[in-house]
Recover the amino acids of this structure.
């Protein structure tokens, strides 16, 4: 079931009614049952895997916690020197448990998502080296949300290990934290500190949160139905028959795909966060006007924020602070100086992060390339940062001035458009072919655009919708709360805006005969 | 106060949607006005009570049965009220509308839609889509005219192919997976509605499976035969009758649909089958049906032109093949046309 399906629109109000009628103690139970029903609809019997994960994470969490308590008891009346030894012993044991648990979770994820890819690589190697072996493999359907809840399990256990949180002893609470239906399919990747407390509050619905939640859902529908679904046919045509189009059209195809991806994913997040808000739960944001970023690394603090934060907190930092890399930093600092020295270890950690990031999106060369593409640009940014700062100073360019910021955004957008093109292309080779064709033959042909399965009216709607999206993003970037602003208007004006918006989505949405809806892209990752 | 506000807000919204639904319901049946499925919709322009048999169903119907060929030979008036991948909801709502202007003696229903699977959510979506005009016809905003703001309908545009569609492509038989023989519960509930509706209008409802190498199986045949026998309805499986279909020359897509060659054979057999088993009136030389004679002339001209074009094209085939493939690919993507 997608968050944009009519079934979802029926399920949420029903759930609201049941939730409101129930006692405050029963409310979290209702949310959990609804979540399991949702997963069942999407994944049927594979729901077992989230149950197993829940039991596993509950057990390992308590184990880590028990050891922590045992340690505290053990060091109570002991000499200082011995204390250190005992502490180290427990830490080691906890570390082993944590690693064991992580390997277990990752292994399940790996079995579902990556075995096919690695089998195909092995087969390629065999055929290249003329070894007469061919491994047969049938693609398995992965349980819904496995890429998301696996990361949540890892984060949860790591946080217990690091002493940031205590283990949740109540299995039911933990189950709801992992399965909460709005974020099961496409994230955000929620930390225990974000929602574990809120989920079981069982507060009654309140008018403010319900109306704001519904408005947020409406905004998501606008992005998905009016923009993303309308772009789907032209983008699909351009990427399947790229050789037939001029470079200009290909370039518009890259922009179109980036917008499609942004509107589909961030639109889903609007529906997800809006739904959670209806039930008084604040989820972390996953997008923050990414196209206004200064550079590629800034972009990744604004696009799929929770994934970036996961990699930062659970791979980048632990790696950079690990003993071998710290030792390496010391050496490189001595040789390369204080600026470039730490960059070497940073680069190693960054490489691992982007390798994992690429792989997380899918088992395929295009995704790995996508990860390496961003690694390359982020690394180049840190290498050249000092040069740029010095250069700007010499040329008397103010790096905070508007023209310079626009230049930065423009440059960034080009990087991102090209990156997303590789992300969408079926093979890395096609990505390069498209790029070279764009550069060789950068001409625009109006007639070509009208042969892409949508007509001039659709282009008109797209342009207006993108302008609306741009203006709203701009206001958000300036910290103006649009929903608050509308809510403070007199009732006639306010309601007119709401009606106009609802009817506009219904009429100008690209659904029904003649359109091809975008499948939920991030549900597959 | 809050509750009153909620009620008023939604009340106004519902009124707005109702008004929108009236505005967006097509007032003509021309493609230029944003009507989807023009050929099947043109049945509403046929003169009142002139269509004796309606063939309902998915693309198998408009690919296999040419009403004008049957009229030429037997004088029966048949209309293909079929649309791509027609769901049983659409069949039902279409038939309900047809009864407003026609009194068909027979309805021939292609049974394929009883097997069409929908997820629970698509099922709901279809039901909503069929029943709320503003959602179904929303895309007509591109073609709205002043006329749409009145409630006057002008359904005058006729189809001389009577719902049939001409395809000349030949793609020999390809391998297909064995189809699953599971009647879908949602479809059966709608089937009962269709049965009740035809009974109410004293129409004989006949079920059929038109030639299709892809979705036919003995298992399905036996299942349907048993099912309809129990219900007391006729069921004709054209896959088991000697139509003389050669799947290597008579299909346009490797065994899923017939092309014009196949349609000629199927229509010929169908006409004869009607003559042998049912009682339909021969309307040839009936002055009331003069428009059918005119349609026949136009139909023949059209087929002749198409065939000439095909012959000319086959000479140029090599040159244009690439182009065609791309167009076809584009079309497939856009029309998303299944069966």
């Amino acid at each position: 079931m997608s968050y944009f399906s009519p079934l979802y629109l029926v399920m949420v109000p029903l759930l609201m009614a049941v939730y409101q009628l129930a006692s405050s103690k029963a409310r979290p139970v209702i949310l959990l049952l609804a979540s399991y029903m949702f997963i069942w609809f999407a994944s049927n019997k594979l729901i077992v895997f989230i149950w197993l994960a829940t039991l596993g994470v509950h057990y390992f969490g308590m184990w880590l916690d028990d050891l922590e308590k045992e340690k505290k008891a053990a060091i109570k009346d002991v000499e200082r020197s011995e204390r250190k030894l005992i502490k180290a012993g427990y830490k080691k044991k906890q570390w082993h448990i944590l690693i064991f648990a992580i390997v277990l979770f990752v292994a399940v994820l790996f079995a579902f998502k990556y075995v096919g890819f690695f089998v195909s690589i092995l087969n390629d190697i065999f055929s290249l080296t003329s070894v007469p072996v061919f491994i047969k493999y049938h693609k398995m359907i992965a349980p819904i949300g496995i890429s998301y809840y696996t990361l949540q399990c890892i984060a949860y256990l790591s946080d217990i290990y690091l002493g940031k949180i205590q283990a949740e002893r109540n299995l039911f609470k933990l189950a709801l934290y992992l399965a909460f239906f709005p974020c099961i399919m496409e994230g955000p990747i929620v930390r225990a500190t974000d929602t574990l407390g809120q989920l079981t509050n069982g507060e009654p619905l309140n008018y403010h949160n319900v109306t704001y939640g519904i408005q947020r859902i409406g905004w998501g529908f606008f992005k998905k139905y009016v923009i993303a679904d309308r772009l789907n046919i032209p983008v699909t045509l351009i990427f399947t028959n790229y050789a037939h189009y001029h470079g200009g059209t290909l370039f518009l195809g890259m922009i179109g795909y980036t917008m499609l991806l942004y509107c589909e994913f961030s639109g889903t997040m609007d529906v997800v966060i809006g739904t959670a808000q209806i039930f008084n739960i604040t989820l972390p944001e996953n997008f923050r006007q990414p196209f206004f970023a200064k550079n590629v690394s800034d972009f990744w603090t604004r696009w799929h924020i929770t994934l970036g934060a996961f990699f930062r907190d659970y791979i980048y930092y632990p790696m950079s602070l690990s003993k071998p890399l710290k030792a390496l930093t010391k050496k490189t600092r001595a040789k390369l100086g204080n600026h470039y020295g730490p960059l070497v270890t940073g680069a190693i950690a960054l490489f691992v992060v982007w390798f994992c990031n690429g792989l997380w999106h899918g088992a395929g060369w295009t995704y790995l390339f996508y990860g390496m593409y961003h690694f390359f640009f982020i690394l180049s940014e840190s290498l050249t940062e000092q040069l740029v700062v010095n250069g700007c100073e010499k040329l008397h360019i103010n790096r905070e001035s508007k023209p310079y910021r626009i230049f930065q955004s423009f440059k960034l957008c080009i990087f991102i458009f090209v990156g997303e093109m590789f992300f969408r292309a079926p093979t890395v080779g096609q990505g390069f072919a498209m790029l070279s064709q764009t550069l060789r033959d950068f001409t625009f042909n109006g007639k070509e655009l009208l042969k892409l399965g949508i007509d001039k009216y659709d282009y008109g709607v797209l342009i207006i919708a993108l302008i609306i999206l741009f203006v709203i993003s701009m206001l958000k970037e300036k910290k103006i709360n649009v929903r608050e602003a509308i809510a403070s208007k007199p009732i006639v004006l306010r309601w007119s805006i709401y009606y106009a918006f609802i009817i506009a989505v219904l009429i100008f949405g690209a659904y029904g005969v003649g359109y091809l809806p975008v499948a939920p892209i991030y549900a597959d990752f | 106060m809050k509750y009153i506000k909620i009620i008023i807000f939604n009340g106004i919204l519902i009124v707005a949607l109702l008004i929108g639904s009236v505005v967006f319901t097509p007032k003509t049946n021309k493609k230029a006005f944003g009507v989807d499925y023009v050929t099947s919709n043109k049945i509403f322009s046929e003169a009142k009570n002139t269509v004796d048999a309606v063939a309902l169903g998915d693309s198998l119907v408009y690919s296999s049965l040419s009403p004008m060929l049957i009229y030429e030979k037997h004088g029966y008036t048949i209309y293909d009220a079929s649309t791509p991948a027609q769901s049983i909801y659409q069949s039902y709502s279409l038939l309900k509308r047809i009864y407003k202007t026609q009194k068909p003696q027979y309805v021939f229903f292609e049974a394929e839609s009883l097997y069409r699977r929908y997820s629970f959510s698509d099922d709901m979506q279809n039901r909503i889509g069929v029943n709320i005009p503003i959602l179904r016809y929303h895309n007509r905003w591109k073609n709205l005219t002043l006329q749409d703001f009145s409630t006057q309908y002008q359904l005058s545009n006729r189809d001389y192919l009577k719902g049939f569609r001409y395809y000349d492509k030949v793609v020999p038989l390809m391998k297909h997976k064995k189809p699953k023989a599971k009647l879908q519960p949602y479809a059966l509930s709608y089937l009962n509605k269709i049965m009740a509706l035809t009974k109410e209008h004293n129409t004989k409802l006949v079920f059929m499976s038109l030639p299709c190498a892809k979705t036919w199986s003995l298992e399905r045949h036996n299942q349907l035969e048993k099912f309809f026998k129990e219900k007391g309805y006729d069921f004709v499986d054209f896959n088991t009758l000697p139509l003389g279909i050669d799947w290597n020359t008579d299909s346009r897509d490797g065994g899923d649909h017939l092309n014009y060659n196949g349609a000629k054979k199927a229509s010929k057999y169908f006409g004869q089958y009607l003559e042998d088993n049912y009682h339909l009136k021969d309307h040839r030389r009936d002055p009331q049906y003069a428009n059918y004679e005119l349609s026949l002339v136009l139909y023949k001209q059209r087929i002749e032109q198409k065939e000439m074009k095909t012959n000319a094209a086959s000479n140029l085939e090599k040159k244009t093949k690439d182009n065609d493939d791309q167009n076809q690919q584009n079309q497939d993507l856009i029309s998303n046309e299944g069966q």
